[in-house]
């Protein structure tokens, strides 16, 4: 009987530990690309602690000008926007602000689209070669693969 009570006690302790959500400390993650000659696609992240249809306001800062709100009504039901009025000859920064009980919170970290950015539906991210991978003819590196080869430990 004592063993049964002990097992139940341990079971209750372990299930409550595994019931907790493990989360990373992420920011809004705003990203913008000039996806057409006359448009910028802006996207951002909804955080796990936010409810569905959480409202957002999106701001564009062109060069040294003051920020301009791009949406007439709060954005809900999605986390992206297409800006067709950007000035591509200047650096353009995009910032997202959330609305909590009708009041704007502090803005996200701005994402800057450089002046005269090329049209592309992706961002090019340079990779740093890990130590020991200097001979490019001998090694092929894939993004996401840990140093030393594939996840199985085999070289490519």
From TrEMBL:
<dbReference type="InterPro" id="IPR041624">
    <property type="entry name" value="RGI_lyase"/>
</dbReference>
<dbReference type="InterPro" id="IPR034641">
    <property type="entry name" value="RGL11"/>
</dbReference>
<dbReference type="Pfam" id="PF18370">
    <property type="entry name" value="RGI_lyase"/>
</dbReference>
<feature type="domain" description="Rhamnogalacturonan I lyase beta-sheet">
    <location>
        <begin position="22"/>
        <end position="110"/>
    </location>
</feature>
<dbReference type="InterPro" id="IPR013783">
    <property type="entry name" value="Ig-like_fold"/>
</dbReference>
<protein>
    <recommendedName>
        <fullName>Rhamnogalacturonan I lyase beta-sheet domain-containing protein</fullName>
    </recommendedName>
</protein>
